[in-house]
Structures are given as C-alpha cells and as structure tokens.
What does this fold into?
Amino acid sequence: MIMRILLVTAAMLVPSMLWAGSMQVEAGKMIFLHKENRAEFINNVQVKRDDFVMSCDRLVVNYSEGENTQMEFADAFGHVIMTQGDKKGYADTARLDQKNNMLTLKGNAIMEQPGGRIEGETIIHNMASEKTEIHPVKGGRTHMTIETGNKGNSLLPGAGK
It folds into this structure.
C-alpha cells in the first residue's frame, strides 16, 4: 500500500519531457483511488512547478501505470487561478492534458498578459502549436481587450492609420 502511494506521488513528481520539472501539490485532503489510477486533492489546493502556480478547490489527477508511471491529465474545479510569469488564467474549471499537450479553461474563462486580455466561455490552448481558440457561451460572443502602448499607439501593427 505504501509502495503504491509512493508510485502515485512519483508519477506526479516525474512528468514527461514536455512537462519537465518536479511538481508540488498541497491540499487540505488527499485521496488515492488506486484501482482507478486517480488521485484527488481537496480543499485549498495549491500546485507549483517552476514558475507555474495553480490554485483551485479540488484537483483530480489521472495517471497511467506501467514502466513509466505519469500523469495523463488533471482536472481542476472551483475558483481556478493559474499564473506563469506575467500570464494569468481564471476559470470555473480547467483541464491540463499532458498526453495531448492541451490546456482547456471552461466557465467564465479569462486569460491575461501585459497588453491584452481574452474572455469566453471556453479557452483551449495547444501548448505544442501555441494555437489558442476562444469559444463563447451559446449565442454569445467572445471578447478581447488590447491595451495601447505609450502615446496612445495601438500594439497592433497598422492599427489607427
């Protein structure tokens, strides 16, 4: 039993090359569901890896077992806040899909960085291709704010001509 808990913990601390670096998870409670290859972290969850920090109410980590045990994907629920450097993300839920190298924010999704902000019901970011899709609430619209640079000039090329 203790060996299995160590395996699960090691799975989160030894991610694949795309997600290199050790990850630390702190929570009010941890539950390991060994038969389902799943770990749940509940109550004031804090995830840290290098300069990436995420907080949420609950985190469910699904992992694969075998020769190289590793995280497949993690779902964050409730008051999700992520920061990495000067970039910030907010949502009701989020999925970090390590297998497909995707980040999905759902429910009041917002991504901010200096110079701009995007908002929608769902934001899907492919970390490999660096492609981001923003989807609105059904029948709604997405929103983007672009801040102007010094002297009132837009940061977009050719804007304001």
Observations:
- The radius of gyration is 18 Å.
- The CA atoms of residues 11 and 69 lie 5 Å apart.
- Confidence is low (pLDDT under 50) at residues 1-19, 152-161.
